[in-house]
Design goal:
Blueprint: E1 6-8, E2 15-17, E3 19-22, H1 34-46, E4 50-52, H2 60-72, E5 83-88, E6 108-113, E7 118-119, E8 133-134, H3 138-150, E9 154-160, H4 164-173, E10 180-184, H5 192-200, E11 204-208, H6 227-236, H7 240-250, E12 254-257, H8 262-267, H9 278-285, H10 309-312
Length: about 325
């Protein structure tokens, strides 16, 4: 079983495994999936210890059940051997609604604000209807997130899809700074400016869509079809996925992978006993950059708070 390295998180004595197993599938399911539960259980057997979920993924129940089965079957001794992340959906991003969903667990290791917007309470939808999008009262929502940490519902708290500007706004009023910013990151969207900002402010970066999220409403095959990455993979006798994941790892970020194929689950952990050369890294550094998730699914066209992708990402889009 592969040993996965750890990184320390700020404002806590906790660590985060540097590879996590993602549980988002698209289109988003309407109810919990037996396939999801079985895949999570197999991932635990293979050696994954970090699992990423969210209220809108409808994966939290499956994750909770898989953890209970893993303990019952003796695969792990206790829930404490796992690192569980979940995310606050936009419809719950209101001060009085900020509570982690019930996974059948006593606590979350990490609880994130999923997006820097709010929407009409009670509607777990993606995309969000434009009439349901409202500006977030970030200060009050974060105060409620801090309360989740203070009472032990979450060991660490953080954000997802936050730009440098939005992180600055949060840091200006936060009593507990965010431990993590989970963002899109891959060789075709390297996030250098954001990573530098997060490093200066002791915010750990977790990368989602490390392979370009082909098959989602925002993703494409451009990462997996990139000629530079393909050439490196062939020369190293690795998969393109392994080259991408290794590159993210070498940037100091944790990375979320998702596959229900057992061989690919194993391949995605086989990134720690080799390194990219300086020449290979330089080639990757010169890949043309293109953001995949531009946020258009969350942007109201007429009445809403964010009029354009550039506004949503505060210009950090090209």
């Amino acid at each position: 079983m592969k040993s996965i390295p750890l990184a320390s998180l700020s404002c806590t004595d906790k660590t985060i495994p540097l590879v996590g197993f993602g549980t988002a599938v698209y289109p988003l399911p309407l109810q919990p999936s037996q396939t999801m539960k079985e895949s999570i259980l197999r991932a635990i057997e293979i050696g994954y210890r970090h699992f990423d979920s969210a209220a809108v993924y409808v994966s939290e129940q499956s994750l909770g059940e898989a953890i209970a089965d893993a303990i019952q079957q003796g695969i792990i001794e206790s829930r404490d051997q796992l690192f569980i992340t979940s995310k606050l959906w936009c419809s719950d991003a209101h001060h009085d609604l900020v509570l982690p969903a019930n996974l059948g667990l006593d606590y979350l290791d990490l609880y994130l604000i999923h997006w820097p917007i709010s929407s009409t309470p009670g509607k777990y939808e993606f995309p969000i209807k434009e009439e349901d999008i409202v500006p977030m009262d970030l200060k009050s929502v974060w105060k409620a997130m801090e309360e989740c940490k203070n009472v032990g519902l979450a060991k660490s708290i953080g954000v997802s899809n936050f730009s440098c500007k939005k992180l600055q706004l949060l840091l200006a009023t936060a009593n507990i700074p965010p431990a993590v910013n989970q963002v899109e990151m891959n060789p075709l969207w390297q996030q250098k400016k954001l990573r530098e900002f997060c490093e200066r402010n002791d915010i750990h970066v977790t990368a989602y869509s490390p392979l370009g999220a082909n098959g989602t409403i925002w993703g494409s095959s451009q990462v997996m079809e990139c000629e530079v990455l393909n050439d490196i993979a062939k020369a190293r006798q690795r998969t393109i996925a392994q080259v991408c994941l290794r590159w993210v790892h070498e940037q100091g970020a944790s990375v979320l992978v998702k596959s229900f194929n057992e061989e690919r689950m194993k391949e995605n952990l086989d990134i720690f006993d080799w390194k990219l050369s300086e020449e290979e890294c330089e080639k990757i550094n010169h890949i043309s950059q293109r953001k995949g998730c531009r946020g258009v699914q969350l942007i109201a066209k007429d009445e809403g708070f964010y009029k354009f992708s550039e506004d949503f990402w505060d210009g950090e889009i090209d």
